[in-house]
Amino acid sequence: MRTIKSLLLISPLFFSLLSQKADAQTDTLKINFQDAEKQFIENNLSLLAQKYNVDASKALIQQAKLWDNPTLSTDQNIHDGSTNKFFNHSNGGGQIFVQLSQVFTTAGKRGKQVKVAEDDAKVQEAAFNDLMRNLKYNLQLDFSQLATLNAQQAVYQNEVKSATELVNAIQKSYDVGNTSMRDLIRLKALLFGLQNDMVENNRQINDLQTELKTLLQTKETTFIQPIVNDKPVENVDLDVQSLINQAMANRPDYLSNQYQLSSATHNLAYQKALAVPDITAGFSYDQNSSYARHYYGLQIGFPIPLFNRNQGNIKSAQYNIKSQESTLKQSEFQLKNDVVAAVNQYKLNQQLFSTQQIAFNEQYDKLFGSMLKSFQQRQISLVEFVDFFDTYKDTKLKILQQQFNLQKAIADLNFAVGTNVIKS
Q1: Among candidate residues 377, 412, 399, 423, the one with its CA nearest the CA of residue 151
Q2: Which of 132, 167, 128, 114 is nearest to 7 (CA)?
Q3: What is the pLDDT of residue 126?
Q4: Dihedral of alpha carbons 56, 60, 63, 68, sign
């Protein structure tokens, strides 16, 4: 008996402190998902870091287009022993040799190298889009779950308030001998259980608040209050094959595998081109060391592909193409299965969540008020009221969970297709 009384004395103080802690976060950010998504894209540091990788890979395309620099070399006498002078070239004496050479690539190597660089840039851009896709998916789940937990918190607060008022009334009735200890203890246990559930729910809210603040880059003192559409989504005609085609055109993970296969194909062409020798052409001038004074020469050179014809790199590139082809096929199978599973899950949750369910939810709230009044007027027994109290809480939480499940099914469908098929 003393333990129950102690709990009831501590609980109001604890929840008062809990409320004061929540009130300390004076900056409440009421935001819908579209605005949250926009703020997330503008402020997220992970996206900014990946964007730099995209810019860096695009810079390599420009680098691949550049010609090799020409080579200039010279050789001349430093000291003339007969005149004891440095760099003496007077009266046609001394020696000067100058050579200018340029490498000319053959077999379209530069164009093929540009193709590889362009493919690599597309891969980096697809990686950026895939990172955004995953982060936006996590954002939408956190956003919807936080809205659900906030709604659950309202349910707990309403029930705790009603249960507290009942306990206080029954306590007074018990003190004058009109209520049994068994009924009082049962109501106190019910209140204590609700308070514990509310604390756990609040812990989950705090965890999600931390995640969303990180994603949105908001102040640490901000309390995020998601605004969601709790009305049922209108029936959407979902053609599976059409959605699969959309996914193959939009999903960055699948597109990345396509770009990597294209890069492997272009790399094979580049490696084969490397087997063709490049030509070096040049001009030279020799003042005194050649068979004739003031010699002008034309140089042409190229390596003879006798031993190294780039055979190893060509074979490696061929195997890489086969590997990328298998990866792309596996990615296509996974894509199709993801779309079909997401469509089925959405249809299932959409059927469960309907307009009739919302009407039932409102009627159930009215019934709760009627049952509470009936118990206070002793028209129903404590056992009947407690059973209804537990059923009411469980039903309300299940309705909210169904709302979240529908939002998650929409997020899963959009994630599987790679675009917003249904707006949440």
Answers
A1: 399
A2: 167
A3: 93
A4: positive
CB 313 within 8 A of CB 274: yes
DSSP reduced 3-state for 298: strand
Local structure of 75: helix, strand or coil: strand
- Alpha carbons 147 and 139: distance in angstroms, whole number: 12
Cα torsion 112, 114, 119, 123: sign = positive
The secondary structure of residue 66, as a DSSP letter, is S
Predicted confidence (pLDDT) per residue in 113-122, tens digit: 999 999 999 9
Residues 384-410 pLDDT 10s: 878 888 888 888 888 889 889 999 999
- CA distance to 56, 122, 228, 265, 271, per residue, from 116 (Å): 15, 10, 45, 9, 11
Q: Which phi and psi angles does 74 have, rounded to 5°?
A: -145, 155
Collapsed DSSP state (helix, strand, coil) of residue 222: strand
Alpha-carbon gap, residue 40 to 215, rounded angstroms: 6
Rounded to an integer, the average pLDDT of 90-99 is 80
Whether residue 87 is predicted with pLDDT greater than 90 in this model: the reply is no
Produce one character per residue of 273-307: b if its CB has 16 or more CB atoms within 10 Å, e if not. bbebebebebebebbbeeeeeeeeeeeeeeeeeee
Structure-model confidence comparison of residues 37 and 313, the more confident one: 313
Pairing of strands 27-32, 222-227: parallel
Contact 361, 399 (CB under 8 A): yes
Overall fold of domain 109-277+310-417: Outer membrane efflux proteins (OEP) (1.20.1600)
pLDDT at 230: 67
Q: What is the mean pLDDT of residues 221-250?
A: 85
The stretch 142-155 carries a mean pLDDT of: 92
User: Which tokens in the block code for residue 243?
Assistant: 């959605």
Is residue 312 over pLDDT 70? yes
Average of pLDDT values for 256-260? 96
